[in-house]
Design brief:
Length: 100
């Protein structure tokens, strides 16, 4: 069963860019809920500006909710260069939001 809906979450993600740890605040506007084996997987597509107008697509494998709308997540991501199409890359990094 697939349920498609639009929502907006404000996430703070940690990502390694050019051997520097950069904290990015992004807006997620496309969410697809996938119900499988009694587990809800959410597929986030996040597009935002980086250097040289590159794009990043985040594949969220597991979403844990904390108080309020705070979301901590484990994710892998793909990067794309300037050519306007998404290049599939092997997972560069698996990262977790760090607790403050």
């Amino acid at each position: 069963m697939f349920a498609n809906f639009a929502a907006i979450f404000s996430l703070t993600l940690a990502k390694t860019l050019q051997s520097h740890l950069v904290y990015l605040k992004i807006i997620v506007d496309n969410i697809i809920n996938i119900f499988a084996e009694n587990i809800i997987y959410r597929y986030f597509v996040c597009v935002f500006r980086l250097r040289k107008n590159s794009f990043v697509m985040f594949h969220i494998r597991q979403v844990k909710r904390n108080r309020g709308t705070r979301i901590r997540l484990l994710f892998t991501f793909e990067t794309a260069v300037n050519d306007g199409r998404l290049k599939k890359a092997s997972p560069i990094e698996k990262a977790k939001n760090q607790r403050r």
